[in-house]
Design a protein that fits this description.
Elements (H helix, E strand, L loop, with lengths): L12 E5 L10 E4 L13 E4 L6 E3 L13 E9 L6 E4 L13 E5 L4 E8 L18 E5 L14 E3 L11 E6 L12 E6 L3 E5 L5 E5 L14
Parallel strand pairs: 8-10
Antiparallel strand pairs: 1-8, 2-7, 3-4, 3-5, 5-6, 5-7, 8-12, 9-10, 9-11, 11-12, 13-14
Length: 226
């Protein structure tokens, strides 16, 4: 039987929630600062800017922001400064938009599950199928350096880090995508969830406990803790 071929990573795509709960397209509208200059594509991971609560792109690979991620970008809307008309877009443009009403649509449920393509490393855009033994283990986020997609879709994926039991890795594999296995029985795509925040301890008087990573809503520090 011929299976579909995955040619390139496409970001994190929401499918359903833990326990088989249905994902009905629910998302939260969160602000992007006027003039924010980094492109954000459909399927990119976003986090809170810790200074003002606006949304920015998460660029971490083996770890994410200490305050955690808030979800996955599913498009945006803003008043086009050239036309004065409301614009609905698949991606937020590089170079920025000057507008006071920019809103990102974000899949922000901490229980959200995502389909994601498997790549060869932290900056790789090459699909690199993985053995099924990754199930139940952790993966990093591949962040290729540039995205020139005219579709507006992300080019990030998941990669197998050196040790998939490291608790700082941001993604947990909860299922495998059987439709895109290769001829060797390895998997080009997996289903992932956000890993939990983790604790670090620094010696002192008293010792200092810090919560890091995971989903922002589950991180007891709060999104603006710096």
């Amino acid at each position: 039987m011929a299976y579909p071929t995955v040619n390139a990573p496409y970001g994190l795509i929401p499918i359903n929630l833990i326990g088989g709960q249905v994902f009905a397209g629910a998302n939260r509208h969160l602000p992007i600062a006027s003039g924010y200059s980094t492109a954000i594509f459909y399927g990119d991971i976003v986090k809170f800017n810790t200074t003002d609560g606006t949304i920015v792109k998460e660029t971490g690979t083996s770890t994410v922001s200490a305050n955690g991620v808030v979800g996955v970008f599913l498009g945006c809307t803003y008043t086009n400064p050239s036309t004065g008309q409301k614009l609905f877009a698949q991606s937020y443009p590089s170079g920025g938009v000057v507008a006071s009403d920019i809103e990102a649509y974000v899949a922000d449920d901490p229980d959200q599950l995502f389909k994601v393509a498997v790549t060869g490393g932290s900056t790789s855009s090459t699909i690199t199928p993985i053995a099924g033994t990754i199930l139940g283990s952790n993966m990093g986020i591949s962040q290729p350096s540039t995205n020139t997609s005219i579709s507006g879709n992300s080019n990030i994926g998941a990669f197998n880090a050196a040790d998939s039991t490291v608790f700082t890795l941001p993604l947990r594999v909860v299922s495998l995508v059987y439709e895109t296995t290769n001829s060797s029985g390895n998997y080009s795509e997996v289903i992932v969830k956000w890993n939990m925040p983790y604790i670090t301890l620094a010696a002192g008087t008293p010792n200092v406990v810090s919560y890091n990573g995971g989903h922002s809503y589950l991180n007891p520090n709060g999104q603006f803790n710096v």
